[in-house]
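Collaborator request log, item 7. Partner lab (contact: R.S.) asked for a structural prediction of GNAT family N-acetyltransferase to inform their binding assays.
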Amino acid sequence: MSEVQIRRAEEIDLPAIVAMLADDPLGRSREDASEPLAKAYRDAFAAVNADPNLFLAVMTDGGRVIGTLQISYLAGLSLQGAWRGQIEAVRVAADRRGERLGQRLLEWAVEQCRARGCKIVQLTTNKSRHDAHRFYDRLGFKASHIGYKLEL
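Returned to partner:
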């Protein structure tokens, strides 16, 4: 393995990121990785990149994007005004799974949250992602809440 690095995503990384988001049964039903990428992806990237409380990360190996996640830093009044780190869209390229790259990516993200002064790190995962549930359990995350979503 070459030198694996984690850095802020650049627009050139978008095709690889979207391809990873689309690379499972859930993703295939809601993402479109065909080229050229839809303008909505580029607009979303620009919005994320412009917001200091959002960080879209990529993990690379030899210049190839092999992992991604997004951190949202959320201010709130609960927990005595604590900041939260919300981790979303965690993915590792299918051919690189099983190398503990996801663990390395999540541990890096937790450290980023700690460095920003967050008192809690949270994430959600779809109920159907049983492998992800075991992964997050193994890393010490607790399934302490029930999440609800309303599609608009």
